[in-house]
Amino acid sequence: MFITPEPLEIIYALALFLWILFVTHFVCRRLYDALMRRGFRHNVTVYLNRKIIHILTGGLAAVLVPVLFKSFAVIAVLVAVLAIGNYIPHHLGKIWYWYQVEENMYEVHFIIMWGLIMGLGFLMKNLTMAVLPILFMSVGDGVTGLVRNLIYQKRTKSWWGNFAMALFCVPIGFLSLGYTGAVAGTVASIVEKIEIGRIDDNITVPLVSFILIWTLPAAGFPATP
């Protein structure tokens, strides 16, 4: 899990880091400015940017990890840098207004859970178990937010968004892990609607789906028809 990374892995991690910075600090900032000039509300634009970041950074990185990395060590460093980097603006009271909000630090939760689930995948030597829950959190929840934003023009919980999430999560879950993946995708799409205090869907979606993917086969749940 924490074997010494190969030189190429360090280059790949730096490339991912630069890509994430490009999306969050160039693409999304310019998109924010463009949409604000067109009369979009601040909160709508921020929420849209957050979901774009979900998909283009968290989702893309998750898909690339099994292809590019053999060790979790360099990924752990990347996750730590990103989590601390996104926490500092909140701590200083100078948030990156085009995608962060003062009332919560859910983007930090996203980064930490991404790293935790991916680390568990490396530990258990089964990256599919990690990548799938992360895709539910990043792409599935990203689709949910985009749909809700288009319909309601604000951050809200609606079953329309969960239905859109299920349209992604259930098929990708089935294609990856059969019935186990489909059940995990279904439950993740429902759990996304539930928030308990500061425990948001960036925590519940990947955690619950990972537990299901881990435990259902051990309980004898059939993987295929």
Question: Can you offer a commentary on this structure?
Answer:
The chain is mostly helical and 225 residues long. It has seven helices and no strands. Helix 3 (73-92) runs antiparallel to helix 4 and helix 4 (106-123) packs antiparallel against helix 5. It is globular and about 55 Å long.
Q: Brief overview, please?
A:
The protein is 77% helix and 0% strand.
What distinguishing features does this structure have?
225 residues, mainly alpha, 7 helices, 0% strand, globular
Tally the beta strands.
0
Q: Fraction of residues in helices?
A: over 70%
Number of helices: 7
**Number of domains as seen in the coordinates:** 1
Summed over residues and divided by their number, the pLDDT gives a mean of: 91
The major beta sheet can be summarized as: none
How would you describe the shape?
A: globular
**Straight-line N-to-C gap:** 33 Å
Which range does the strand content fall in? under 5%
Radius of gyration computed on alpha carbons: 17 Å
Structural class, please? mainly alpha
- The low-confidence runs, each spanning 5 or more residues with pLDDT under 50, are none
Helix-strand string: HHHHHHH
Topology:
Layout: H1 7-37, H2 42-68, H3 73-92, H4 106-123, H5 127-152, H6 159-191, H7 201-218
Helix pairs in contact: 1-2, 1-3, 2-4, 2-5, 3-4, 4-5, 4-7, 5-6, 5-7, 6-7
